[in-house]
Amino acid sequence: MLNVKDRDLVIPGQLLGSDLFYDINCFTENGSVFSCVEGMVRVDGKKVKMVPSNGVYLPKRDDVVIGVISDVLVGKWLVDINSPYLCAMRAEEVSRDAAKKDLSQFFKVGEIITAKVADVDEVYSCQLIKPWKVEAGLIIDVGPKRVPRVVGKQKSMLNMIRDKTGSRIIVGQNGKIWLKGGNVDLAVSTIKRIEKYAQTQGLTDQIAELLDKESAAAGGRFAREEPCSCGHEEEHAENDSF
Amino acid sequence: MEIEAYLKKDYIKNLVKEGKREDGRAFDEYRKIILDNGYAKEKAPGSCMVQLGKTKVMAGISIDIGEPYSDRPEDGVMSTSTELRPIASPKFESGPPNEESIEVARVIDRGIRESGAIDMKKLFIEEDLVWVVFIDIHVMDHSGNLIDAGGIAAISALLNARLPKYEDGKIICGEYSGKLPLTGTPVPCTMVKINDSILIDPSIDEEYGMDARLTISTTDTINAMQKGGNGSFNEKEVMDAVDMAYAKGKEIRRMITGD
Amino acid sequence: MSGGDNDVVLIKGNKRLDGRGFDELRDIKMEVSVLERAEGSAYIEWGKNRVIVGVYGPRELHPKFLQDPTRAMLRCVYNLAPFSVDERKKPGPDRRSVEISKVCAEALSSVVMLERFPNTVIDVYVEVLQADAGTRCAGLTAASLALADAGIPMKDLVAACSAGKVQGQIVVDLMKEEDNFGQCDLPMAIIPRKSEVVLLQMDGKLSRDEFKQAYKMAVDGCMKVYEMQKNTLLGSMNKFVGVEGGVENGD
Questions:
Q1: What is the ipTM of this complex?
Q2: Burial class (CB in 10 A: 0-12, 13-18, 19+), A5
Q3: Phi, psi of A204 (to 5 degrees)
Q4: CB–CB contact C207 B222 (8 Å)
Q5: A38 vs C149: CB contact, 8 Å cut-off?
Q6: Every domain of chain C and the residues it spans
Q7: Any idea which architecture C22-235 has in CATH?
Q8: Do A157 and A122 contact (CB within 8 A), yes or no?
Q9: Where in the sequence is the domain holding B213, given as residue range(s)?
Q10: How far apart are CA B242 and CA B191, in angstroms?
Q11: Exposure string (b/e) for C13-26, b if CB count within 10 Å is 16 or more?
Q12: pLDDT tens digit string along B132-168?
C-alpha cells in the first residue's frame, strides 16, 4: 500500500506506505515504511526510494572523489575527502617499491588529488586507488546529494556542459568539482543552478536552452581541451542518477 | 566508549523481559535505604549519609549570611551543588562540575525549592542581610540512582539542620539558635524505562540498560520533574510514574521524618 | 517559579496578558537554511523569542577516546546571548544552560539515527538571541528542523511546547510574565508520530489531575508546532523540485 505519489515531497518520519521495497533513506517499523530524510520520494511499482535534499558524503565503492592529502605516513597517505571519515591510500598506488621511499616526493600534505574509492568497510573507512594530482584549475562545492544531477543520466548533463562551455570537468561524488579551461564562469553558474533546482522536471532541456543562450552571449563556443590521463573525467558512477 | 554499558545492556534487557531484576527486587521496590543523620555534626549544621543499596551519598548543609537576590529582598537564599567525587566511580574525574553532576544538583534543587520546604521568609535577618543555605551533595559510591540518594540525603540533612547564632553582625561558630525552619519533605523518585517496563530506583547496571529515565519529586503536589536518557515515554507510562512517585514518596517520607 | 505572586494580575476574564486564550500559542515563524556554512540551520521567532540553530556534522570526533564504533554522538550547546535578557548575562555556560543542553541533546538523540554514523559527532548549536520564556522549546523545535535540513536521517521530528499554571489556571506556552509570576512551568517535547514525550521538565506545584491536564495541553501545543514544522520543511524544498516555475526565475 502506498501513502505517497511519485515525486511527492516528504519530511523525516513521514509514512510512505506498507509492504514496500525501500532504500537506505527509509526505515521500517511494524511493517510500515517511513522516510528518514527530507526530500523527494520516487515510486517505481512496489519500490520506493528517497532522493534526499541534503546530507554529508559517505564513501561508496567506485566513486570518483576529490580530496586533500592530510598526512603522509609510512607506506600510506591519509586523505580528507569531505566526509566524516578519513581515507587511506596505499603507497603501492604510485610505484611498486614506494613503501621504501619517502612518500612526500609523490604527494605532499595539502596537495589535491582525485582518486577512486576502492573498499569501504562497515564503519566507512575506505581505501583510495588511482590517484592523480590536481593542478591549476578551480574547485567548487556542490551538495554531495545533488551531485548525481550534475552528472545526469548516462552523463548527459555533464557532457552537455562540457560541450557547450569547453571546460574540462572532474566531478567528485563527494561534492567537489574541478574545472579548467573554456568558459569556466558559465560552467560554474550552470552547475550552481543545477544544484539549486536539482529535482526540477525537464531540467536537462531547460539547462540546455540556458547554456545556448548564454554561451552565444559570451561569444560562441570554446574548443574543448584534451582530458587528463587519469581517466577520472570519464569515470562517474551513474547508478545514483535517478 | 564505556565497556560496562555494552557488557550489561543485553543481560539487563533480557532479565526485564522475563519480569526479573538482577538483584531480585520487584519493579516497584526500592533498595534498602539506611539514613545516618548528623554524620558530621561536630562541624556542619546539618548532615546526612545515605546508603541506597550500595550507593553512598552524603549531604552537608552549610549556613552563612549574605545578600538576598534583588528581586526577593525578604527571602533567604539556597544553593545546591553536587560533586561526583573520583572516589565514587572509575568514570568520575576531578575538576569543574560536568553536565551529569549539574543535572543531579539542579533536579534536587528544584524539588526542594519549588515545594517551599525551606521557609525562606524566616531566613530574613535585616535589610540586605539573609541566611544563605548551601546544600552540598557528595557522592561517595556510585551504584546507581544518584538523584534519589542525593535528594533523600539533602532533605534529611535539612530537617536536622540547626540555624547558627547571629549576634552583632557575626555568626558565632559552633553555637546554634534553633532549627532551620522547614515546612515540608519533598522526596524525589526516579524510574527508568527498560523495554516497555518501568523500574523504580535503578541500579548502575539498570542505568546502563535503560532507554529513558524519569524523576518526579513530590510533597502533597508534584514539585519537580526531569526526563533523561535517549528514549521516550508515552502518556500512560508518565501517569503511572506519577502515581508510583506519589506512593513511594509517601513511604520514604515516613521513613525520613520517623512518623 | 515563585510559588505564585498574587499581586500581579495575569488573567482577566478568559484572556491572558497578551490577549491569548488558555490554549493559544504565541505567534511562531520558522525558516530553514538560514546559514551558509552550517550543514543545516533554522531560525525561529516564537513570541518575543529569537533563536537560531546550526548543525555541523556528522564529522570526526576528537578526542578519539570519545568515539563510539556503534553510533554517533550528538552534542548540543544551548547558549544564551549576553544581550538576550533584561539584565546582561555573563557570557559562557552556566549551570542552567549546561542542563538544558543535556536534556535537549537527549531529546534529539531519541529520533536521530545515530547508528548510521559510527565514530562521529553531530553538533547542534542553539543560539538564543532574544529570550522571553520558552527558549528551550523554541530551540529544540528549531534544532529538529536544522537536523532535517542537514539531511541527517531521523525517525521523526521533535516538536516542543510548554504548559503551566497561572493564577490557578492551566495554560499553554507561558510568556515571560507568566513564567516569572506563575505557579508552574512544564516544558515538554514530543515525537509527534507516536505522541511520546522525549523532553519533560517541571518545576512548581501541580496536583496529579492538574498535571494530567497540563500534559494534554502541552501535547496539543506540540502538535500545532509540528504542523508548522512540516509546512516549513515542505516549503523549503519547493526550489529543489522547481515548483516555483522554471530554473530561469529567481537566481
A1: 0.91
A2: exposed
A3: -60, -45
A4: yes
A5: yes
A6: 22-235
A7: 2-Layer Sandwich (3.30)
A8: no
A9: 3-257
A10: 10
A11: eeebeeebebeebb
A12: 999 999 999 999 999 999 999 999 999 999 999 998 8
